[in-house]
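tool=predict chain=A
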Amino acid sequence: MRRFLALAAFLAAPAWAQTVVVSPAPQSTAVTVYRAPERASDTAMNLGWLEGYALITEKRTVSIPKGRATVRFEGVAAGLFPESAIISGLPAGVREKNMDADLLSPATLYARGFGRPVLLRRLHPKSGKEQLERAVIRSAPDGSAILQTADGFEAINCSGLRESITYPGVPADLSAKPTLSVETDSPVAAKVTLSLSYLAWGFNWQANYVLRMREDGRKADLDAWVTLASSDSTSYPEAEAALVAGKVNREADNGARPEPTGDSLTFRCFIGPMPEPLPMSAPPPPPPAMMERADMVVTAMRMNAPMMKAAVVVQQEALGDLKLYRVPMPTTVAANAQKQVMLAQKRGVSVTPFVQVDVYDAYVQGNAALMLRTRNRKEEGLGLPLPGGPITVFEPRGENAVLIGEGGVPDKAVGEDLDLRIGTATQVTLEASETRQNDKTRAVTLTASNARAQPVRLEVRIAKDDGTLLLTPSAKLKRKDGRDVWAVTVPANARATLRYTLRRPS
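tool=predict ok
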């Protein structure tokens, strides 16, 4: 269950002496979502543990009485950072802010009932006869439910009867909605429109790319989407939604946010591991935006399948060194849900398939990687800022498109090269051998083998220790990212060889 930080102590004056003004919901809301600061841009977000945040701005109209009063803003985000809340529009400003610590739930209701009388309701499974018995709660809500009755202590739901607890009422300080309360002291009574802005934890977003290769293998069609996710319990209907790409220099509050565990109440009748409960019905499959890579079930699609018409496309704006993507129409940011809107559609993007292998000194590192290369320019069919996210690549097979690989797109600015690793090249191998000539020099031979029925473009990236020289290569090498690169086209069912000498420094 979520716990929140209260920023100030309660007022010295008794609570009954103040007027309480309740704002049940905002009139309008704007939600701007920032990515999790520690998540790599080319990796998928963890939908079960969202570590991004959102800037939420609400407009509310309230009637403020003269004098001191408490204004309660119900329906704010459950993950609200109270220290970040800014309220403008009050006649005399804000004296104090408090975030309600506990929300109404089965767990909090049981916890607040500790040591208090309740009614134990028993229902016989065969006769259906109901019995009510007075009892007192004697345990915390994180294990067995121990109640004291006239017959002694017992754990409910352990006797074979259907049992439940009936409470005499709801504690006054338990709220059904996340609530931010502020203290104000107005010189006059007034009806005002307030602006409430705050940061809230439990949001995240990412870009999702789908690349469909064409028959020639040199062109592809790209669909780019942005996936917005919220793990908060508050929904924002018809909100102005926006996303911010880039890393914001925001300092943490030196405390990790607790992983959400829910507010459900589960009792045990024994000590030991709790068995998994049997579901009442089979859960529905997750939407595509929720699928992790291991759960991907779509392996083929029709090439001539009709595409979504009139997709909502986000509008890009500059925000200093960051990029702002604004949804051009009101949209609902729902609680514990995901939403996708289109980022861009690009047709006829130029791509170059190739195989990449890394060599360190005279040793092959890892397997050959299946790669795709393009450049983020209009000439290649792109030419727009690309926020990071996972990419799925399909290749045509007759009328269908078959999944051939998945990878990640890092944040890329316009004009940058984009190399995508989408899988392992199983039919292309590289072997390395060396012959020591003396204490300072070694002769190295790299042999590339292609078992495919078509030629393969191969790039071998050679790294070496500082000061070590690569001499007399048998083929021309180029330099890229601080490495020597052997780029060669290996014919079908053939081999290619590179020989060079490594000399250590004196």
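The chain has a mean pLDDT of 80. Helices lie at 106-112.
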